[in-house]
Design goal:
Helix 13 crosses helix 14 and helix 15 packs across helix 16. The chain is globular. It is an alpha/beta fold and 586 residues long. The protein contains 20 helices and 25 strands. The chain starts with 10 loop residues before the first strand and ends with a strand.
Length: 586
């Protein structure tokens, strides 16, 4: 069908489709620790570990070690691995060089693609596939996919056959560097033709074309920007990068222009409704109809796919937030007998420290205007002896999206609060209900397959489940409280830039962390929140009852002296507004 030959805007694996504007090749040592370019590296859509040309002699073990640590160094990032070419493979007693590289790669669950170099034929690709299936026959069908680098004359000649015979191939990189080495020509002369040949083969088979990298950093001279713009104008929406500082440039160029998006939205609705064809009235030369409007429709889908799925967002922490938000949280707490000034007891300071960390996590949300509700947080872990005062960055990665029956999207994100060296101070999962973007056709993709089974099988703490736990628990505290006045509410929203409509209506919803601060948890030590759920919106200046229970039937580690507790906030009529399941010692 003709429609299947449209340019693919997302790069698929066996289970999902991913934004892939930028493929950043990593330095051989990059996976070992978070370096000074970590922030820029995390902004790339795909990170590439390299066992081939980018791996100097004697450093294969370093690349392998970094790949094994990638889930720590680059949490939740989508990874690709370029393996050694077939003609350089070396056998040994237990296998071969390529088998070793594939085995290490496939053990790292964040690896979604294996990148194959120097493939001349259908049989070359088949040889790699046989090795992958030897290690794990389900990997290509249940988890990952292949990318090939078209970089030889024979590879280019046979590209149509290769793609036609191997549906496991999800992307093709235009390997200009090696191709023009074979041809012994200036790449700026034949690059347009080379790009076209790769692009057309990809269009024929529904595969994502990925452009060759600029071979110089080219930031100040503009070479990188010109290279990516040329690729974009040639039909590519994805490219290879060799330096982290190129990431922002590539992502901007391969993303739709916001001004065009607004313009196209005004034009697309009448056409989708009436399918009008002809010249725009009184324009003289503006034609309306296929293929122009179909191209604009694709443009809007591409925009919403990126906006809905762009995985990693990193924000710097404002010093004003660190100085003022704790004061507001303390004021809210002191109204109900809590830590006035934020420093009255060690235990209260620990709770305040956790509250501020959680509040910082809410600032890293680029689509806050589309927020419908914050469902809650889970697995909140504050590193020992770490203070919110050391926070410098907030990093958030989307790890799952699910479409609800009402048409909204539940978005699950992993959030880390980081210090100046990008080391983790606090991490947690957050679940938000967001408005579905109109042209986003990949909103119901579930949880990403690299995640742990516990995370993929997460079940919401329903009101019924809370009531059941209460029935099997012992009440240890109950007190009346009053929610914050609107003045504190609006100051808090202003400092954290919380501009979601639900916070600014006539009866605004109190933001999540401010809501959580009303729980009576001042007297607990070693707080560790397993689950925080918001069941109903809190309003300003309303009376509530905070109750705390010891949960009797939950296990703890043998050498752990803490116990499980449940804190519940409800109104006088018994309606539950929020619950917090946590471990702590009194």
């Amino acid at each position: 069908m003709a429609s299947r030959q449209m340019l693919q805007s997302l790069l698929p694996s066996a289970r999902m489709k991913h934004v892939a504007r930028s493929h950043l090749f990593l330095h051989p040592k990059a996976g070992l620790r978070r370096n000074k370019f970590w922030k820029e590296t995390m902004q790339s859509d795909v990170l590439v570990f390299d066992f081939q040309d980018g791996c100097p002699p004697g450093m294969r073990s370093t690349v392998a070690e970094g790949l094994g640590l990638a889930h720590i160094t680059y949490p939740n990032m989508k990874l690709s691995v370029r393996v050694t070419e077939l003609e350089r493979d070396e056998t040994h007693e237990s296998g071969s060089t390529i088998l070793d590289e594939l085995s290490v790669s496939m053990k790292q669950k964040q690896v979604y693609w294996i990148m194959l170099p120097m493939c001349d034929s259908v049989d070359d690709v088949k040889e790699y596939i046989n090795m992958i299936n030897y290690i794990d026959p389900s990997w290509l069908t249940q988890h990952g996919g292949l990318q090939i680098i078209c970089e030889t004359p024979l590879g280019l000649k046979n590209l149509q056959d290769i793609l036609g015979n191997h549906k496991e191939i999800k992307g093709v990189i235009a390997g200009g560097g090696d191709y023009f080495r074979f041809a012994q020509c200036e790449n700026n002369l034949l690059l347009p033709q080379f790009r076209w040949d790769v692009l057309n083969a990809c269009l024929c088979h529904g595969v994502v074309p990925i452009d060759t990298p600029p071979l110089a950093v080219g930031l100040e001279c503009g070479l990188a920007e010109r290279h990516f713009q040329s690729a974009h104008d040639s039909g590519f929406r994805s490219g290879v990068l060799l330096h982290p500082l190129q990431t922002k440039i590539a992502n901007n160029i391969f993303s739709p222009c916001p001004d065009k998006v607004e313009e196209y939205k005004e034009e697309i609705y009448p056409w989708l409704e009436k399918r009008q064809t002809g010249y725009k009235l009184n324009s003289g030369n503006d034609f309306v109809g296929p293929p122009h409007m179909k191209q604009k429709h694709w443009y809007l889908k591409h925009h919403d796919n990126i906006r809905g799925k762009a995985m990693t967002h990193i924000e710097s922490v404002d010093d004003t937030v660190l100085s003022r938000v704790p004061v507001l949280l303390s004021k809210a707490k002191s109204m109900n007998g809590g830590f006035e000034g934020g420093e009255d007891t060690t235990n209260a300071t620990e709770f305040l420290n956790t509250l501020v960390m959680i509040s910082l996590s809410t600032t890293c949300h680029p689509r806050h205007n589309d927020l419908i509700a914050n469902l809650g947080f889970s697995n909140v872990k504050v590193s020992p002896n770490k203070s919110y005062r050391d926070a410098r960055y907030v990093s958030s990665q989307i790890i799952g999206r699910r479409l609800t029956s009402s048409g909204y999207v539940i978005v699950t994100t992993k959030v880390q609060i980081l210090d100046e060296s990008h080391q983790t101070l606090c991490e947690l999962e957050r679940r938000l209900v967001e408005r579905k973007l109109e042209f986003d056709d990949n909103a119901d993709e579930g949880m990403y397959s690299h995640l742990s089974e516990d995370l993929k099988k997460y079940k919401r703490m329903t009101v019924q489940r809370v009531k059941s736990m209460i029935d099997q628990s012992t009440l240890i505290d109950s007190k009346s409280i009053k929610s914050v006045p609107t003045g504190i509410h609006y100051q808090y929203c202003d400092f954290l830039h919380l501009d979601a409509p639900l916070h600014h209506v006539e009866e605004p919803t109190v933001p999540s962390t401010l809501h959580l601060s009303h729980h009576a948890l001042n007297d607990f030590e070693n707080l560790s929140f397993k689950n925080i759920t918001f069941h109903a919106p809190m309003k300003s200046g309303v009376e509530y009852i905070a109750t705390t229970y010891v949960v009797m039937d939950m296990e703890v580690e043998e050498d752990d002296d803490s116990t499980w507790h449940l804190s519940v906030l409800r109104d006088g009529g018994g309606k539950i507004f929020s619950s917090a399941l946590f471990q702590a010692s009194v």
